[in-house]
Each structure stands twice: as structure tokens, then as C-alpha cells.
Specification:
The chain is α/β, with parallel strands linked by helices. Helix 5 packs parallel to helix 6. Strands 2-1-3-4-5 form a five-stranded parallel sheet, sandwiched between helices. It has two domains: 192 residues, Rossmann fold (3-Layer(aba) Sandwich), CATH 3.40.50.2300; 155 residues, Rossmann fold (3-Layer(aba) Sandwich). Helices cover 45% and strands 18% of the residues. The longest helix has 23 residues.
């Protein structure tokens, strides 16, 4: 009897020990997510407070569906589109505040800076807003995920469609930093591959408000298409000023990275007929409409693809933490990469070894004012671009993690 009692006590102690170990797999019994975005500048409409809201929605939905034994917390900060501010904040979060994943990171320069800090400190970087392909090529690492879109996919949609429809000569108006340069490079390659010709380009400061001298250079080129290799307020300001100077409609504009927030700001009269490529449209199907209505009820505007992608990336991350039973970076990344993504944002999405999440993209055309039947009814979906075609194939990858 005494021996049986000792065995029982020993088993109980072992079980208690295992339970304590399992609980200890989540550092501090809390998963902490940091949203580092543009809350006040050029990209605040397409990311900003809407990205913070999308993150909170993902956390709330995860807690409701998974009922985790650990807590989930969020912090947020404005990186002001400056790499030094972003890297310093990320380091502070990782070192002192127990943040497990830095997320969103709109603006390529801030994303590349935070990726380095995340790698150094063995934390995770989830990127929804930045676009440049170096993120999953030369600058790739094994703790980062590029989730929503990139310049290769944008060029492969918009530049290809416009060139094939007769826009054979191009001049680029380009934001003078890594994102704009990558978008111009990728778009130029697509234009040439589809029988077009690039007549020239001009770089403008980021951010900018006066585009007059740059637009006059584009006008003097005589190009049929002025490719706007910029985003956010830079794009909307360039479109407004092109109209004021009488450049359009004599020459056509191609917004190589435009968001539904830009179309809403400019209005259908100014943007009708424009083609753009997006990873998400709120009015695509019942699932996108249901989530977007919830977002709209709080934000009072429909979500951009960055905000929708932010929700999806955070929810996928949290589900991976629960499935792995730990917040250990390597184990969570492995779980994220082996688990398909199926939600309103992506069907059969997949995170590749280069960190690129591949999913279908959409070529859309902005409706004429008379074609819009209700608020935010802005797009005709002209083509679904399958994931395998939308993104750069691994055979062309320059990521050191990919073995050829």
C-alpha cells in the first residue's frame, strides 16, 4: 500500500511538472503583438489606425474561437515612415516589453530595418504594408513573412494589362526610395516583355506635395502612359495635379499601387477607367463583405488590402502559436509555413521558404460614376491572377534561403 501511494504521488508530481512545462512554453503566459505603422503620414489612410483595428479584431476573434490558456496583448506605435524610428522601437519592444512579433510595417525602408532587428533578436516580423521584392529576395531571412502583396505582383497585373491594351510607351514618376525603385524596375521589365517601351523616368522625394516639375517632364516625354511608381498621398496628389495641368486625358495614368482609400479620396470621376492590382476587395464575395462590414462599423470606411492582410496575418500567427504550443520563433514559423491559409483574405494561401505568402491577386478597373450602385461600390473585377502566376517564382528567387 505504501509503495502504491509513493507511485501515485510520483505520477502526480510528474504530471504537475509536465503541466508547468507546457504552460511555461508561452513566455510570461502572454503573446504580445506590436503594430508598427504609419499613424500620421502619407500611408496612414491605407494602413494606420485601420491596421491597428484589424489587429485587435484578429486578437478578439482568435480568443473567441480558440479560448487560449495564454493572454494576447497588443501595443502600437507610429514609425513616421523612418527606418531609425522603426528599428529603435522594435528593439525596445523586443528587449523590454516582451513583444513576440512586430507587424504591419508599411514602407519598405522601415520593414527592412525591423527585419534585421527581428533576426538579431530571434523574433518574428509580419509585413502587410511594404511592397518591395528585396524583402523576399536579397534581404530575406527566416523570421520574416511578406504577406499581402509586392511590386512583382503589382507589375504583373497592372503594367501587363495596360501594355497589352495598347499603352506601349511609358514614363515613370517614381518615389525615390527602395519601394518606388523596385516598383519601377519590376514594371519596366513587364512593359518591355509585353512589347512596350520605357521612354524615361524621374524620381521625386518621399513624401512629396508638389509634383509640377516631375509631371512636366513626364508630359514632355510624349509617353502614352505615365506610370505612378508611388503610393498613398503621393499617388493621389500626382493624379490631382496631372488633371489640373491638363496632362490627362491626353496622356493616361497608371496607378501601379493604388488602394480603395485612394479611389475614395479622389472620387470615381477622377479615377474612372483606371486599372489597378489588389490582393483584396471588400465586395468580392459574402465572406469579404461580412468581415468588411464589421470593420466599417468601427472605422467608418471600407478596409484596404493592407488592413485586411494585417488581420489575416495576425490571426494565422496566433493560430500557429496555439498549434505549436509555444511562442518559440522557429517552431511558430515552421507551423505557419506548413499550415495553409484559408480565410476571407486568402484561399489555400501558403508561406514559402523565402517568406513570401502566395495567394490570388485581382486585376480591377475603377467603375464610372453611373456604374456605382451603393457606397464603396468602386471596382469591376476584370481578372483573378492565380497565386502561382501573381508572384515571382522560386526559380527566379535571389533569397539565400532557397537552394537552387
Amino acid at each position: 500500500m505504501q509503495m502504491k501511494k509513493l507511485i501515485t504521488l510520483a505520477c502526480s508530481a510528474a504530471i504537475a511538472g509536465l503541466s508547468g512545462t507546457a504552460s511555461a512554453q508561452i513566455s510570461g503566459d502572454t503573446v504580445k503583438i506590436g503594430v508598427l505603422t504609419d499613424l500620421s503620414g502619407t500611408y496612414s489612410d491605407l494602413a494606420g489606425s485601420g491596421a491597428v483595428l484589424a489587429t485587435q479584431m484578429a486578437i478578439d476573434d482568435f480568443i473567441a474561437e480558440a479560448k487560449p490558456s495564454f493572454k494576447v496583448e497588443m501595443v502600437s506605435a507610429d514609425h513616421q515612415n523612418k527606418a531609425d524610428i522603426a528599428s529603435n522601437k522594435a528593439r525596445e519592444w523586443f528587449e523590454r516589453e516582451g513583444v513576440d512579433a512586430a507587424t504591419e510595417l508599411v514602407t519598405t525602408s522601415t520593414a527592412l530595418a525591423v527585419m534585421k532587428i527581428a533576426k538579431e533578436m530571434n523574433k518574428i516580423a509580419l509585413m502587410s504594408g511594404p511592397a518591395s521584392t528585396p524583402i523576399t529576395n536579397e534581404q530575406c531571412n527566416d523570421v520574416s513573412v511578406h504577406y499581402t502583396y509586392d511590386t512583382y505582383a503589382l507589375a504583373n497585373g497592372t503594367a501587363k494589362a495596360v501594355t497589352k491594351q495598347g499603352g506601349k510607351t511609358w514614363f515613370f514618376l517614381t518615389a525615390d526610395y527602395a519601394f518606388g525603385q523596385a516598383l519601377e524596375k519590376d514594371s519596366s521589365a513587364v512593359v518591355v516583355a509585353n512589347g512596350g517601351k520605357v521612354l524615361g523616368s524621374v524620381r521625386h522625394p518621399f513624401p512629396a506635395s508638389d509634383f509640377s516639375s516631375f509631371l512636366l517632364q513626364a508630359q514632355a516625354s510624349g509617353a502614352q502612359i505615365i506610370g505612378l511608381a508611388n503610393a498613398g498621398a503621393d499617388t493621389t496628389n500626382a493624379i490631382k495635379q496631372a488633371s489640373e495641368f491638363g496632362i490627362t486625358p491626353k496622356q493616361s495614368l497608371a496607378g501601379l499601387l493604388m488602394f480603395i482609400t485612394d479611389v475614395h479620396s479622389l472620387g470615381l470621376k477622377s479615377t474612372q477607367g483606371m486599372y489597378l492590382t489588389t490582393g483584396f476587395y471588400w465586395d468580392l464575395n459574402d465572406a469579404t463583405r461580412a468581415w468588411s462590414k464589421r470593420f466599417f462599423d468601427k472605422q467608418k470606411r471600407m478596409p484596404s488590402m493592407v488592413q485586411a492582410g494585417q488581420y489575416s496575418s495576425v490571426l494565422h500567427y496566433l493560430r500557429a502559436v496555439k498549434a505549436a504550443g509555444t511562442d518559440d520563433t522557429a517552431k511558430v514559423m515552421a507551423q505557419m509555413k506548413k499550415t495553409p491559409i484559408n480565410d476571407f483574405f486568402a484561399k489555400n494561401g501558403k508561406i514559402r521558404d523565402d517568406g513570401r505568402m502566395i495567394h490570388d491577386m485581382y486585376l480591377v478597373q475603377v467603375k464610372k460614376p453611373e456604374e456605382s450602385k451603393y457606397p464603396w461600390d468602386y471596382y469591376h473585377v476584370r481578372q483573378t491572377i492565380p497565386a502561382a502566376e501573381a508572384f515571382q517564382p522560386l526559380s527566379e528567387s535571389r533569397c539565400p534561403l532557397i537552394k537552387k
